[in-house]
């Protein structure tokens, strides 16, 4: 199997810079159109049953300063 190496030439410079990137995105935008669909109706709380959260996830969130400690 061949090995590929990339010489370290400093910070990566995009060809054409930000303006070229913006024009590329503008050209691609029509390809990214999402068809309009009706939004699903909200689920009433009375129909939500058996929600469980793994203890590891609870500990992770509890340890975040924004949510817990």
TrEMBL record:
Identification of the protein by name: Uncharacterized protein
């Amino acid at each position: 199997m061949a090995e590929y190496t990339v010489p370290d030439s400093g910070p990566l410079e995009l060809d054409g810079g930000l303006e070229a990137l913006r024009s590329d995105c503008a050209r691609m935008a029509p390809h990214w159109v999402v068809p309009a669909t009706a939004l699903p109706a909200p689920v009433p709380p009375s129909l939500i049953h058996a929600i469980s959260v793994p203890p590891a996830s609870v500990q992770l969130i509890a340890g975040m300063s924004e949510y817990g400690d």
